Amino acid sequence: MVSGKPRAGSQAALPLHGCTVIDLSSGIAGGYCTKMLADGGAEVVKVEAPEGDPLRRWTASGAGLAPDADGALFAFLACSKQSVVVDPADAADADLLDTLLAAADIAVWSPDSRLSEDPRYRPDALRRTHPHLVVTAITPFGLEGPWAGRAATEFTLQAWSGGIVGLGRGAPDRAPVHIGGRIGEWFAGAYASAATLTSRLRTAGSGAGELVDLAILETQILGLTYYPVSFFEGLGRPFRTERRLSVPGVATAADGMVALGCGTAQQWFDLCAMVGHAEWIDEGIAPSITQRATDKAPEIFAWLADQPVDVIRDIASAFRIPNGPVVNGANATTMDHFIDRDFFTTNPRDGFVQPGAPFRTEPPLLRAPEPAPRLGEHTETLRAAPPSATPRSESGVPDPLPFRGIRVLDMTTFWAGPSCTHYLAMLGAEVIHVESAGRPDGTRLIAGVPASEDQWWEKSPIFSGLNTNKKSITVDFRDERGRDLLHKLVATCDVVVENYTPRVLEQIGLSHSEVEAIRPDAIMVRMPGFGLNGPWRDNPAFAYVIEDTSGLTWLTGHTDRNPIEPYSIGDPNAGVHALNALLLALEHRRKTGRGVLIEAAMVEAALNVTAEQVIEYSAYGAQLERDGNRGPTAAPQNLYRAAGLDEFGRPDRWVAIAVATDDQWTALRAALGDPNWAHDPDLADAAGRRRRHDDIDTELAAWCADRTPADIIRTLWDAGVPVAEVLQPHHQVDLPQLRSRGFFEPLSHPAFDTAHHSTVPARFSTRPEQYHRTHAPLLGQHNTEVLTALGYTADEIAELDRDGVIGGLPAVVRPTVKSQ
């Protein structure tokens, strides 16, 4: 059994023991990045200006705080850290900070604080004065490029990313809707942690530091859209062109809300039977399953409305239809599965309920949370006894491919698992992607390419976007020879990653104990939807179900309607958290030579990035609610329709505007020409603007209606107001900022047109000339290469192919040939 809550133990046993991090960031992204590093054993010193990180005074619900109290979200993110106050105008304080930086290994930086904006402490200056440091900078657009330094909020970044309309989220009769809960900031923090750990692995022992320049826009592209540029350029059409609500999606039952998914033909057939309309099955599945479900929505919702939630979930589970409760901050801690897994824990300083770790390991690699520091709590201690700089070697050159020499057995499918292993493949690991010819990776089959086309199974740009640089072998696990092949392959691999339902590996003889017996130093990453134990253990876990059961869905949508599933972030969020766990395990193995078992349950990663809901409810009794395109940090914040038709001939062009500060409000007012309505004294501060949000929306909607998106953006952005066009996601590649940073790389493929592929969301000082070096593999392309290296003869390989144990064709097109 993988350990649950981190156990108190020897700090020296943690993978980042001896690593010192100076946290010069503010806000969620930097706070979550450094929290993950602290959890892994790093000594994190949060350096704050005398006024402190603004998060110390933040509550999403507006709950009042005592003058000396910290907000609960800060107390969660700052667990296990130290706090030092530095006034940049004070020479003694500046000397203290320089001493801390000289002794540190990593600095994490974000803009918008008085301290981090000081020229001495900007990333380029830190690299000049402390060249040994890994400096991770977290900014909206990156440190360089035509949009560097431009005004932005997470909301406007969602618009620029294409994530607001990327998967057709929202009702067609309303504006598109963003994903609530500031998810982009949390996701960027998780990626910043992974990028920082990557750089540490690359630079360890070299004496050279590195700049890690992470752009939140790029993380949102990876988390909120589904490889739309590759899809559009590879197939000549967008993935989706119109908004629609999922059916069933989140539905009203007799005693509450329930979430149900229907994404495959079999799930549609089962849903028909479940709601008492088996005759619908005989009507076929043309048009698409999604359209058929939409056409039958009235009857489906009527049936669901008459049934209690528990009855619906029991029947759906029996049919293997993806389902889950709609979780929020108030009910999350009451769910039987989370109780059974003992997931939630208590904040060690302030006593409110907070999420446990986003992954579990054996042996334990995470420390139990320690109390967050009060402002400046450790200043005088470190001033009196400052740390000494560790002698560092000046030899060695960092490897552009830090995972070179690591071999990964990639037994994953769809999005979550492949996104984790793809990062390793882009940065040098040899990744062997295992599929079955009978059941190829699901992303091969979702491109909408007719089966009448030659090699239709090779024409998925989404599969391509997730699997470049990998090798592909096909293995039929049901055959004993296939299982024997996998066992031989495990013996050659440093890492095994899988995201099957928990029972599959036990059935094929690859439980952790069996892997450990074959390869004692192997790192095994298991990515079940809900964990290896608990009442929901065997439930199907598609991205939207993870979103439903973690609170991501709850905060997305309009107040007067049921919430809307994001339908995206649940998978890549699981992938980047599993990646963080794997990087810690690699550090542990480097130090000890021993392997690690990682249990990275998708839902527990999601519950960490929705932590604010549970924390606010526990600390203040406040249940956070969805509010359309408005948000807790900016007022006004909304989407406004602009003039003109979109590329599909519809009056559906939108801009995102978000005013996060009083200075931005002043700038907006001036850019609008100082209209009389904007001078109302009630609008002078954020509280007043929030109260009068409807009135402001009316005025801004009228102003935008006569202007094109380009006109609006030019007028407002030049004035310093956060604004964005709600981008169709296949146009991401056209953004000048992304072109400047080289975020997309063109790649040819034998089965479809050359297409641009997204890379990693951080520019490393030391990086490969090209991330995508080979196209995604054809089905079974490397069977002969891999099996020959395992000792199979040509005759043995041919026999396995004849018998269907391996192969290069899906079972539906493979000729039936028996060995003689």
From TrEMBL:
Keywords: Transferase. The keyword Transit peptide does not apply. Residues 350-374 are annotated as: Disordered. One of its GO terms (molecular function) is CoA-transferase activity. It holds the Pfam family CoA_transf_3. Gene3D superfamilies: Crotonobetainyl-coa:carnitine coa-transferase, domain 1 (3.40.50.10540), formyl-coa transferase, domain 3 (3.30.1540.10). This is CoA transferase. The lineage of its organism: Bacteria, Bacillati, Actinomycetota, Actinomycetes, Mycobacteriales.
